[in-house]
Amino acid sequence: MFRKLDSLKGNRLEEAYGMLLNYINGKSELDDWQNLTNEQQNAIRLGIEQLDNGEGREHKKVMSDIRKRYTNA
Q1: Which pLDDT value is given to residue 45?
Q2: Total structural domains within the chain
């Protein structure tokens, strides 16, 4: 396995690195989720459901609205 990883170049090496990090961090991410309150978990689930229903907003639009709100306050 080390030889195969060592022989990877460019994007393939970055892909493998990302996969390895995801695997290593997977346990801590699960712990992070379990440490959230039920209210926080439900809010995240609601946000995902809204995105799945096409109710999301573009980052640029959100940032523009926030800038307007706080520069005109």
Answers
A1: 93
A2: 1
